[in-house]
Each structure stands twice: as structure tokens, then as C-alpha cells.
Amino acid sequence: MAPETRSFSSPSILRLRAGILLLILSVLLCGTGGVFVARQFSLGIGWALLIAIAIWIAIGVLLSRLDSKIYYGLALLITLLLAYLVYDFSTSVLGWSSLVSALLAAVATAVVAFAFQDFRKIKVELSRWAYRRR
Fold first, then answer.
1. Ranges of H-type helices in 9-67
2. What integer pLDDT is reported at residue 27 of this predicted model?
3. In this structure, are residues 56 and 71 in contact, taking their beta carbons and an 8 Å threshold?
4. Of 78, 116, 84, the residue nearest 102 (C-alpha)
5. What tens digit of pLDDT does each residue of 67-126 get?
6. What count of Cα atoms within 13 Å lies in the side-chain half-sphere of residue 80?
7. How many CB atoms lie within 10 A of CB 13?
8. Which DSSP category does 14 fall into?
9. Computed from CA positions of residues 25, 29, 30, 32, in that sequence, does the dihedral angle turn out positive or negative?
10. Sequence-ordered list of residues with C-beta below 8 angstroms from that of 84, at least 6 positions apart, any chain
């Protein structure tokens, strides 16, 4: 009896990934930056949206040009800063014990590190997908 062959279509580029959290975060941060700049110059919400889009495009171009060593270096710095901030906030403001704060910081560090790694994979996959579509 011959083995049954299955034809698998290529997976969609749009699927749930951890790096999507970073994409959402970047949209929120760029939106906040756009609103901040627009308010500083007494501009309306339309200008805030245009400034936010310009910031997001500029960051996207910058990220697409980064070498992997620089990207991982920046990701490491951001992840370590987050770990410190989580530890410091939970010990000083919330008054939790050092052990609980360290465990919470370790979990936050692991999640953010995984998200940065997955975001890098998404960037590579999007580039391949975009070049294949030409």
C-alpha cells in the first residue's frame, strides 16, 4: 500500500506570534510620541496621527537596516533595563520580598527576550515574503 501524500500550503505570514506584541507596543509608543509632539506644537489629532506614522516608518526603516549583532545588543540592553525596573518596582514600591521580585523579574526577562527573538524572525520572514511577492 502506497503512503498517502498530503499537500500542505505554505503557512500564512499572519499568524499569532510573540513578536506581534512588540509590533503592537511599537504602534502604541509611536502613537504616544505623535500625540506628545503634536501637543507641544498645539497641533490637532490629524497631525498627531501623521507624526506617529512618520515615527513608526522611521523606526521600521532603522530596524530593517540593523545588523543582527546590533539588534541583539539593543534587545539585551532593553531586556536588562526591564528586568531591573521590574525588580526595583516590586521591591521598593510594592514591598515584595527580594526572592519574589527576582522571580518576577526573571519571568519578565524571559518573556521579553522571547518576544525580541520572535520579532527578529518575523522581520526576516516579512522581508522574504515581500521579496517573493515582487
1. 19-40, 45-65
2. 80
3. no
4. 84
5. 888 888 988 898 888 888 888 888 887 888 889 889 988 998 888 888 888 778 877 777
6. 6
7. 12
8. -
9. positive
10. 105
- What cell does 56 get? 513608526
Ordered DSSP codes for 64-115: HH--HHHHHHHHHHHHHHHHHHHHHIIIIIS---HHHHHHHHHHHHHHHHHH
Q: What is the pLDDT of residue 103?
A: 92
Residue 3 amino acid letter: P
Residue 59's φ and ψ, nearest 5 degrees, are -65, -40
pLDDT for the residue numbered 127: 75
Q: Quick check: pTM over 0.90?
A: no
d(CA 41, CA 52): 14
Grid look-up 530593517 returns: 64
CA gap 20, 35 in Å, rounded: 23
C-alpha cell at 122: 518575523
